[in-house]
Amino acid sequence: MTSPFVPRTKFLYDRVINWFPGHMAKGLRVISERLNSVDLIVEVRDARIPLSSINPNFEATIGRKPRMIVYNKFDLADPSSKAPLLDAFSRYSPHTPVLFTSSNTDAGVRRILNRASTYADKIPMLTVMVVGMPNVGKSSLINSLRRLGVGKGKAAPTGAQPGITRNVVGTIKVLEDPTIYLIDTPGVMVPHIPQPVESLKVAVTGGIRDHLADEQVMVDYLLYRLNQFGNHDYVTQFRVPDGPTNDCNLLLESVARRIGAVVKGGDLDLTMAAKYFLKQYRLGKFGQYTLDDVSPEALERFFSESRDFDKDMSASRRQEKKLAKLQARKEQRERHSKIMTEVV
Prior knowledge:
Blueprint: H1 22-34, E1 40-46, H2 56-62, E2 67-72, H3 82-92, E3 98-100, H4 106-118, E4 125-132, H5 138-150, E5 171-175, E6 179-184, H6 196-204, H7 210-213, H8 215-228, H9 233-237, H10 248-259, H11 270-282, H12 296-305, H13 310-343
Parallel strand pairs: 1-2, 1-4, 2-3, 4-6
Antiparallel strand pairs: 5-6
Helix pairs in contact: 3-12, 4-5, 6-8, 8-10, 8-11, 10-11
């Protein structure tokens, strides 16, 4: 008689993934410099990780500037996560509008335009700056706003990997009446994420370059969560022998056989299999799941402990300054090398 499957109760992971290239430090500085010409901030977050996709640096940079929070990619998140999040914001940040949307559906995008229009009642032109962590869908959202608002095509580059937008760009008109312009900005990562699993969740949802987090580790985490959610569809989809498993290697071997991921010599390519599995998750093929705990108790604890983000922001600022200095030194060396080459 086969024993019933028992999923793992814990995921042991102690590596913090830090990714803060020079263009992010520069982007955060330029965001701060251009704030005086901005009327409204739209902060885009990932609905699959509604807490982990919060960058505390924005709290310090934006200050008291009017802000709207948009939880994008809600079509990939658990629909039941919306109610507790709205309740928590109504209690802890009652003056901040919170909207849920997907760039692929027009209804949510129209709600953003309609809400932004209310800020334009007393001014001839509204300038909106869009900020957020990498790969939360800012550029796709801007393109959708522009398409619906003024009937024009893409204005912001998009891609599956984070870091496509590298500079703060000029204004993009998204509505004629009232006149609304948007400013796209690069995705800005937290320089230091103190919680290892939190950084892994950001990576799994595409906010950190895959190779930095290790694709196979990310699949192991997804397997752990799918088993927690009671979703064992991967067994039939990839023909995993003996049913549900906690063994990531067994899963990846099954995926590799299913998609024909074989390297020279006939060995299975587990990295290619992991990339495929990740892509399926990000496309929503395994269902709609929210990876952060959004129970009322967890949300109360989160907002109570991180109301001002003082500790996290001080660490982030130190890391940001350090990385900015390293980038400045690198650029200085490159300029010096170029000058010496020209002299020779």
